[in-house]
Amino acid sequence: MNKTIEILKNRRSYRDFDENHAISKEELQAILDAARQAPSWMNGQFYSIIVLQQKELREQLVQWNPGNPHIAKSSVFLVFIGDLHRTKMVSTAHETLYPIDESIEPILLATTDAALALENAVIAVESLGLGSVVVGSIRKHGKEISQLLNLPEYTFPLFGLSIGKPTVEMEIKPRLPEPTVIHYDRYQSYAYTLIEQYNQIMEAFGEARETKPWSQKFADYFETKPTMMTDQLLQCQRLLK
């Protein structure tokens, strides 16, 4: 099998890292270079990456995310930022208007670009024989993180990435049945029994972190009234009215 496809198909999340393992400068640079080469709409590159090196900063993030101690224990932690501050600078230099808060489109562009850069980083990490885990829960403290990291207006934290040498081997997590995700030419309806089957597959997989069937987890998640924290942060950062 093609080596790149093999890495992609065998990717998994790791949460236990060797605290004494240091990533070399060359490895870190290779990961960052790979991230920056990701696809980007119109080559806009609407994101930034913050490499958290200070121990105190990472420990503060763990205080806000106690369920993710690997933020401090991994070899390196990256924070991916949706960055529309750069294009604000461009608009100011060209003396043009910047009505960025009139549509959600710029936020989608920045989020997509950051996600693509994140995935490139994840695969680069795997190719180096290291492991990683994406941390989306940092959005729960987006306002505090924005202040901690001195983020300017028109930026917003999206997700983090813990990178290190795994100490616990993880199994490849089963994905949803292909017919529920892959469609040809048009969206195809499928029987709900496929989702019920996936509940059984995940139950047999037996991931300790999962306390509910897959379908129940997301039924409960989307039933809960949104906290609006991200909306409020985007308003503070002048990205939403």
From TrEMBL:
Q: Name one Pfam family in it.
A: Nitroreductase
Oxidoreductase: is it a keyword of this entry? yes
Q: Residues in domain Nitroreductase?
A: 8-165
SUPFAM superfamilies, alphabetized: FMN-dependent nitroreductase-like (SSF55469)
- Keyword presence, S-adenosyl-L-methionine: no
Keywords assigned by UniProt?
A: Flavoprotein, FMN, NADP, Oxidoreductase
Q: Which is one GO molecular function term here?
A: oxidoreductase activity
Q: Which InterPro entries match?
A: EF_Hand_1_Ca_BS, Flavin_OxRdtase_Frp, Nitroreductase, Nitroreductase-like
Q: What family is it from?
A: Belongs to the flavin oxidoreductase frp family.
What name does this protein carry? NADPH-dependent oxidoreductase
What organism does the UniProt record list as the source?
A: Enterococcus plantarum
